[in-house]
Amino acid sequence: MTTPSAAPELERERPGLVSFVLAALRELYGLPEWQPRRPPTDELVLTILSQHTSDLNAERAFDELARRYPDWDAVVRAPVESVASAIVSGGLAQQKAPRIQGVLRRIHEERGDYALDFLGTMEPRAARDWLVRLDGVGPKTASVVLLFCFGLPLMPVDTHVHRVTTRIGLIPVGAPADRAHDLALDVFPRDRMYEAHVNLITHGRRTCSARNPACGRCPVAPRCRYVDPGAP
Ligand code: SF4
Predict the structure, then answer these.
(1) Is residue 232 part of a domain?
(2) Domain count, the chain
(3) For 107-121, what is the mean pLDDT?
(4) Centroid of ligand 1 to alpha carbon of 182 (angstroms)
(5) Using a 6 Å CB cutoff, which residues line ligand 1?
(6) Which of 1, 49, 123, 164 has the CB geometry, 3.0–4.6 Å to 58, for a possible disulfide?
(7) Same domain, residue pair 162 and 140
(8) Are 65 and 83 in contact (CB under 8 A)?
């Protein structure tokens, strides 16, 4: 079954809304510049480690993993308890250790090594589909890897992106996070996906917080449906 795209309806009903929101956020937070971060396999493992914990804890767990094992092959061959002990600072180590080993094992089985660079040449949704077939990798984790490592136009929908976009009325209220990953791709221009992602997260952290959104000083307020359900 094909899923209807949200963007044409949105554009018909609320012309220029996406441009307005992106311009307002750019004015407030600047234009984030994309730069590749880690190798994609490292980013994938780090993103799995960051599930249900802070970035700082995930970084600590990743650094300890890198300190104890010389390469991904050594991680795969290690006893699962040893891997769990290395990543304990990232929380949920008993779940994440077998998940990381399983993901790495599967990549090696399919590709003959642990490299994921081939994903950077794929069509974005196909690359995301490739990753989400791996146990423990959802659309958010896959989108993080592909957006941050390759600049592929995918939108990781975390709690901030989900909250801000639904409040404004860019994503329908009640749309589950998994579905929001596709809806967001229909809403934001491909060439501004990274900017949109980074500035929506910043907005969620600094202004549009979960409990007390600072609508009084928010430049998006004139068109935000959280403020006015009938906003244009
Ligand atoms: S007006 Fe309020 S609810 Fe809307 S985006 Fe701004 S802070 Fe969030």
Answers:
(1) no
(2) 2
(3) 98
(4) 22
(5) 164, 167-168, 207-208, 213-215, 218, 220-221, 224, 226-227
(6) 49
(7) no
(8) yes
Could you identify the atom of ligand 1 that is nearest to the CA of residue 215? 2
Phi and psi for 213 in degrees, rounded to 5?
A: -65, 135
Q: Which of 120, 150, 180 is the C-terminal boundary of a domain?
A: 150
Tens of pLDDT, residue by residue over 18-53, are 999 999 999 999 999 999 889 999 999 999 999 999
CA of 148 to the centre of ligand 1 (A): 26
Q: Looking at ligand 1, which residue's alpha carbon is closest to its atom 1?
A: 221
Task: Give the domain extent around 195.
Answer: 7-33+158-223
- Say yes or no: 72 and 87 in one domain: yes
Task: Give the pLDDT of residue 6.
Answer: 61
- The CATH number for 166's domain is 1.10.1670.10
Both 107 and 187 in one domain: the answer is: no
pLDDT in tens, 171-207: 998 888 788 999 999 999 999 999 999 999 999 999 9
Candidate from 28, 200, 207, 211 with most ligand 1 atoms within 8 A of CB, to mutate = 207
Residue 95, pLDDT score: 97
